[in-house]
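Form 7-S
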Amino acid sequence: MKTIALIAQKGGVGKTTIAVDLAVTAGIPTVLFDLDQQESAVMWADRRNTDSPHVEFITERRLSEGLRAAEQGKFGLAIIDTPPAAGPQAYTAAKAADLVLIPCRPSLVDLDAIRRTAQLIKSAGKPALVIFNAAPHSATTLLEDARAI
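Output:
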C-alpha cells in the first residue's frame, strides 16, 4: 500500500480539498485518514451517499495501527490529511508516508510558510512535492513556461 501525506504549516492552502480529490480519483481502493480535529474530510464523507473512499478520523497515536489495518483491508492507497501546523502530527504523518505533498497558494505569505514544513519533511527523510493550489491562470502559465526551459 502506498501512503501520501498532505502537510502544510499554513491553513487554508487546500490540504483537505486535494486529499479528497485524490481519494475520489485514485482508481484503487483508498482510505483517507483525517488527522485534523476540524474533521473536514470526515464531514465531507458524511454528506456523500457512498462508502468509497473510506474516510475516518484518526489520532496521531493510532495512525500506524490504522495504516496496518488499511493494508490488511486490501486498500491500495492511504491518504493522510493533517492539521495546519508543522508539529508532531505532521511529523508522524510524514514518517508514515511514501510521499508528502505540500499544498501552497501562490502568495508570499504561503511561500514563506513552506520553509518550516520543508524542514519537518527533511527531518523525516521523505520525498516531497509542492503543489500550487488555486493559482491564477497567469501563474499557471509561468510554471508551464518554467518547466519548458
